[in-house]
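Appendix B. Chain record.
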Amino acid sequence: MRKNISSEEKVNLAIDMTDTCVSVCVESLKKKYPNINGKELLERVRERITYNRRRRCEV
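Structure tokens predicted for this chain:
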């Protein structure tokens, strides 16, 4: 990977990584809960994504 990437490229990489993380999370939850509805899926994805953020605040 190049060391000197533009700010725009950094933002695009961050967006792509976030999208990938969310996709992995969604697929994991769908596998664990095959009959999950859209609303519950969204709630559980939000819980998982914010879990680490909440943990850092507690430490």
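Further analysis of this model is presented in Appendix C.
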